[in-house]
């Protein structure tokens, strides 16, 4: 390999379920005892683990053709610095692709399905055998990409957090969130179990479940349903937000509970929570911003776009 071989390939991996159990219980035998004690099928965990290791070895053999290469586990993504010309390969489930993409700034991302019999892989268009052809094409910029809109939360102290699927704003525990919400010229104080702000990609996931559930509840309560929920395209230049379980009271309102945030516009939030307020993205609770009393957040379409190789 010559042209493009000087670009670095970064392989992002994740621990299997068995890896996580062994880390928790210190040995395979203890992990087996724990699972079988609960009536779970240990053999399924083992098959998944062995399949992933075999596929990982094959992927490593392919990227060995590149002079510059690196392997990192998902847990190190928040502190890893990607180079502007890096080619990134995510080997895992769809969630790993989303978790990786939010730390990228236009670098091409290749999603590889390690176990097609187990995972549908909406964000995993490639299998291991495809990489030998795909990576040289990507290195020479000969491969089409699919643009993915991202969201961005910016706090008043200039901390930032990006999201590929969605941002959650609310309480760390199962308590009520209190905040002031502002959209354009409308504002109000709310009490709820949090707000979800979704990208086009995320509109097929958590946001879909929220709206689907809300429609079903409204229908069951006798309200008229106005058609079915339709997710947005992945590259939609807007976000949508939904307030979860808004509570009406003398001090909290419920008129701003669902809407769109167009590119160039912001959803503005001011925390009224003395403690345990957080903002996290894509389901990764460990990587969060504190959102406590007085903190203001502006949420809108990010300047970054994810680039998923097709």
Keywords:
single chain, about 300 residues, alpha+beta, Rossmann fold, Tumour Suppressor Smad4, 2 domains, 10-stranded mixed beta sheet, 6-stranded antiparallel beta sheet, 16 strands, about 25% helix, globular
Question: Could you explain the architecture of this structure?
Answer:
The protein has 310 residues and is of the alpha+beta class. Helices cover 24% and strands 33% of the residues. Strands 1, 2, 3, 4, 5, 6, 8, 9, 13 and 16 form a 10-stranded mixed sheet that branches. A 6-stranded antiparallel sheet has the order 12-11-10-7-14-15, with helices on one face. β5 and β6 (160-163) form a beta hairpin. The mean pLDDT is 92.
Q: What's the structural blueprint in terms of helices and strands?
A:
Elements: E1 9-13, H1 17-25, H2 28-37, H3 42-63, E2 69-73, E3 87-91, H4 94-101, E4 108-112, H5 131-139, E5 145-155, E6 160-163, E7 166-171, E8 177-183, E9 186-192, E10 195-198, H6 206-220, E11 238-243, E12 258-262, E13 267-271, E14 277-281, E15 284-290, E16 296-309
Helix pairs in contact: 1-2
């Amino acid at each position: 390999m010559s042209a493009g071989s000087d670009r670095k390939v970064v392989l992002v991996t994740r621990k299997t379920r068995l890896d996580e159990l062994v880390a928790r219980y210190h040995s395979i035998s203890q992990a087996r005892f724990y699972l079988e004690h609960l009536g779970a099928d240990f053999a399924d965990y083992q098959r998944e683990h062995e399949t992933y290791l075999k596929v990982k070895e094959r992927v490593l053999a392919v990227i060995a053709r590149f002079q510059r290469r690196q392997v990192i586990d998902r847990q190190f993504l928040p502190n890893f610095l990607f180079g502007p010309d890096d080619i990134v390969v995510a080997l895992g489930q769809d969630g790993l692709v989303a978790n990786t993409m939010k730390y990228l700034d236009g670098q091409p991302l290749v999603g590889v399905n390690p176990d097609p019999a187990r995972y549908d892989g909406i964000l995993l268009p490639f299998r291991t055998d495809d990489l030998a052809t795909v990576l040289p094409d990507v290195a020479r910029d000969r491969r089409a990409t699919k643009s993915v809109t991202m969201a961005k939360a910016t706090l008043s102290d200039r901390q930032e957090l990006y999201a590929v699927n969605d941002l959650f704003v609310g309480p760390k525990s199962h308590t009520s969130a209190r905040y002031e919400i502002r959209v354009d010229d409308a504002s109000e104080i709310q009490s709820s179990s949090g707000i979800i702000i979704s990208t086009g990609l995320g509109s097929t996931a958590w946001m879909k479940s929220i709206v689907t559930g809300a429609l079903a509840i409204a229908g069951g309560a006798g309200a008229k349903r106005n058609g079915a929920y339709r997710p947005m395209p992945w590259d939609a230049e807007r976000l949508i937000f939904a307030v979860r379980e808004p509570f009406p009271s003398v001090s909290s309102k419920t008129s701003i509970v669902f809407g769109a945030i167009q590119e160039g516009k912001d959803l503005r939030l001011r925390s009224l929570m003395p403690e345990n307020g957080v903002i996290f993205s894509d389901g990764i609770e460990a990587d969060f911003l504190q959102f406590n009393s007085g903190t203001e957040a502006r949420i809108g379409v990010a300047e970054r776009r994810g680039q998923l190789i097709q």
